[in-house]
Design a protein that fits this description.
single chain, 246 residues, alpha/beta, Rossmann fold, eight-stranded mixed beta sheet, two-stranded antiparallel sheet, 7 helices
Length: 246
């Protein structure tokens, strides 16, 4: 990696995003975006390796405006860490429409918007590395967290589909869960956010034959899908490996 490589990190003012900005600054020029612009300025205002931007991913127009700004400033933004997220707790009956909409916008739709804007640039240079921060939540579907689980499930689907659509390019788009780390969303997390640094380093430094459309957690690759051999979706048939319910 050259020191003039640029990485965009969302949610950079706290938790995992803050830890990653400190970790990667110098090896990269970091475009650090977060709602808390004051915190970013206080933390990185004197750091020449970090440019700070205010951004609320719940506002798609503001997200598009910021993307236009940074694309105009940088010939190539080949590295992206879609880290920002929200976790609105509550059973499905308790959630307000706005809670669901905000969860989907911040956790899935805005990361997809960022990919849509930057992937053409990556394709033009035949290089890109994208890390979308996910969770085990959509695999576990814990009661009381349906908005979070659903939004991260949507992010997973956007990620895997985008990875497959970019298969002809040297573009790697992967999912990563940072693990049970202490953040504003998980103040009781037992691990320091730095525990995820090696996994991030691995995913940012993948070579052309590296994995894409996969899910990584603390150095492990976690399966996203069950084994579905023997199912003919378009024909409406499955073989004897699958138990009929009726």
């Amino acid at each position: 990696m050259e020191t003039n490589d640029v990485v965009l990190i969302t949610g950079a003012s706290s938790g995992v995003g803050l830890s990653l900005t400190h970790h990667l600054a110098g090896r990269f020029h970091v475009l650090a975006a977060a709602r808390s612009l004051g915190k970013l300025k206080a933390e990185f205002g004197e750091n020449p390796d970090v440019s700070v931007f205010g951004l609320d991913l719940a506002d798609p127009d503001a997200t598009k405006d910021l993307l236009d700004t940074i694309v105009a400033q940088h010939e190539s933004i080949a590295y992206v860490i879609n880290n920002a997220g929200v976790n609105v707790a509550g059973t499905l009956e308790e959630l307000e429409d706005a809670d669901v909409q905000r969860s989907l916008q911040v956790n899935a739709i805005s990361p997809a918007l960022i990919m849509r804007r930057l992937l053409p640039q990556m394709k033009a240079h035949d290089f890109g590395r994208v890390i979308n921060m996910t969770s085990g939540a959509p695999l576990n579907c814990f009661p009381g967290y349906s908005a979070y689980s659903a939004s991260k499930g949507a992010l997973n689907a956007f990620t895997v589909t985008a990875a497959r659509e970019c298969a002809e390019y040297n573009i790697k788009i992967n999912l990563m869960s940072p693990g049970p780390v202490k953040t504003n969303m998980a103040p009781n997390g037992p691990l320091d956010p730095s525990v995820c640094h090696p996994t991030v380093d691995y995913l940012l430094s993948l070579d052309a034959d590296g994995p894409t459309g996969r899910f990584f957690w603390l150095g492990y690759e976690i399966p996203l899908f069950p084994i579905l051999e023997g199912i003919e979706w378009l024909e409406g048939r499955a073989d004897e490996r699958y138990r009929r319910a009726f």
